């Protein structure tokens, strides 16, 4: 699912292009809703992204939740983190990211040691980003 249009709404949240801030009136564009907890717009098709219980410690936790809630296949989810460190992350759908990656180009090194054309492509491959630029 493509990221919501910025059409008058807020700025990118936490440097993540897939999250934009809600408008001052808690308004989000067409196919998104405002999560009051995070003040970010999320696609209507992904209501669990606003759920505070969706923090994760590993990919398997996200896979199990997806199965329990009947949301797609297990391979579509991973624990998205800001680095390779074992820290809490957020369960994220990887398959829906691939279609939104075309416009993002900034080479990164994935935690799996593979160079990706962007953070978005690394996340779509179910891996987090180790550093900017190509892998050594």
Automatic annotation (TrEMBL):
InterPro entries membership: Kazal_dom, Kazal_dom_sf
SUPFAM superfamilies in alphabetical order: Kazal-type serine protease inhibitors
Domain Kazal-like, chain residue ranges per copy: 85-136
Recorded superkingdom: Bacteria
Gene3D superfamilies (UniProt xref): 3.30.60.30
Protein name listed in UniProt: Kazal-like domain-containing protein
Source organism of this protein record: Archangium gephyra
């Amino acid at each position: 699912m493509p990221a919501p249009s910025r059409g008058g709404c807020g700025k990118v949240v936490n440097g993540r292009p897939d999250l934009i801030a809600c408008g001052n009136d808690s308004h989000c564009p067409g196919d998104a809703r405002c999560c009051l907890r995070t003040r970010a717009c999320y696609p209507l098709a992904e209501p669990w992204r606003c759920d505070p219980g969706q923090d994760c410690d590993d990919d398997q936790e996200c896979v199990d939740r997806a199965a329990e809630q009947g949301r797609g296949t297990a391979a579509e989810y991973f624990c998205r983190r800001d680095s390779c460190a074992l820290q809490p992350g957020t369960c994220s759908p990887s398959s829906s990211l691939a279609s939104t990656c075309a416009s993002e180009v900034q080479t990164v090194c994935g935690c799996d040691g593979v160079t990706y054309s962007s953070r978005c492509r690394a996340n779509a491959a179910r891996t987090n980003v180790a550093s900017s630029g190509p892998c050594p």
